[in-house]
Amino acid sequence: MIYISGFVGFLLVLTSEAKVGPSSESNLCTETEECLLYDLVCENENYEVRHYSSVKWVSTDEEAFFMDTAIMTAFRRLFKYITGSNKNGEKIEMTAPVVIKIDDSKKQFWQSKVYTMSFLLPSEHQENPPQPTDDKVYFQTMPEMKMYVKSYGGWMMSLTDKINADRLTNQLDAVGAQYKQDHHYAVGYNSPMALRKHNEVWFVVEGEPLCQPVMSDGPLVP
């Protein structure tokens, strides 16, 4: 059994300033100049655990019965903000990924949910971004956190997100991992025109993450 949590914690302190950076530093961001960077804590054949530093996003909420309906309206609203519908009339570079927070507290299909879509603000706008002109657009700073992450290809839709979210929760439950169960994130890295797409499902880690250490063939360890 390998105990790496102390060493990983030391590494995360050293690299905690890596928030938003060049896409060349990530193999996930192929269409934007800047990307959300992270530290890989550990991984196994089913999922990864990543550490993300605190970063600022521009966000909007949309209530709908299905994610597919909500993201069309929310995307247009945020895209208008970055293309000049802000108080500075300034164009802001698109970044990756686009993140959608999904409320999992409502389980019945006839119940609408609030979907929060967020664009990562580029490094030059992390401190003082242009103020939005639409009162449905706002800023939020996500805290430093660790995420359980499962990747998949193809289109990110309500169905594919649910399938992969269910797979991840089943895998986490099987090893006794603790995670926030009232919401998860649907994460997309590519434009609709991209032939090959990379999508992810994120659940926020609670307590010590459970997964196989990087570069180890040992058993699952905390």
Describe the overall structure:
The chain has 222 residues and is α+β, with helices and mostly antiparallel strands. 20% of the residues lie in helices and 30% in strands. It has helices at 5-15, 67-82, 158-174, and strands at 20-22, 34-36, 39-43, 48-52, 55-64, 98-103, 113-120, 137-142, 145-152, 183-188, 199-204. The strands form 2 sheets. A 9-stranded antiparallel sheet has the order 3-4-9-11-10-6-7-5-8, covered by helices on one side. The protein has a two-stranded antiparallel sheet with strand order 1-2. The N and C termini lie close together (10 Å). Mean pLDDT is 87; it is low at 1-16 and 213-222.
In short:
20% of the residues lie in helices and 30% in strands.
Radius of gyration from the alpha-carbon trace, in angstroms: 18 Å
What's the SSE pattern? Answer: HEEEEEHEEEEHEE
> In which order are the strands of the major sheet placed?
3-4-9-11-10-6-7-5-8
Largest sheet: 9 strands, antiparallel
Low-confidence stretches: 1-16, 213-222
Helical coverage, percent range? 10-25%
Structural class: alpha+beta
| Total beta-strand segments | 11
Q: What integer is the average pLDDT?
A: 87
Strand content: 25-35%
**How many angstroms separate the termini?**
10 Å
Number of helices: 3
Categorize the overall geometry: globular
Give a quick set of tags describing it:
30% strand; two-stranded antiparallel ribbon; disordered C terminus; 222 residues; 3 helices; alpha+beta; 9-stranded antiparallel beta sheet
